[in-house]
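Async update (no meeting this week)

Hi team, since we skipped the sync, here's where things stand on the single-chain job. The sequence we agreed to prioritize is pasted below, unchanged from the tracker. I ran it this morning and attached the output directly underneath so nobody has to dig for it. Comments welcome in thread, and please keep replies under the output.
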Amino acid sequence: MTAINKDTLAGNWKQFTGKAKEKWGKLTHDELTKSEGRAEQLAGLVQERYGKTRAEAEKEVEGFMKDCGCKS
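Output:
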């Protein structure tokens, strides 16, 4: 994955969980909360729930983080 501003993401994760839940409705609130903005863990959840390849899931998560202003 590309560089992500992890401090920004972790610090604002509670705000982003709502947006993430809208994007990935199959993920539970608990799963999103436990991922605490860790891109790799979130990509793994997206991969598992949506049957995507790892590369597809990572690209999707990167795009989400960019949209949220979390990508450096």
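Quick observations from my side:
The mean pLDDT is 82.
DSSP finds five helices and no strands in the chain.
Reply here if anything looks off.
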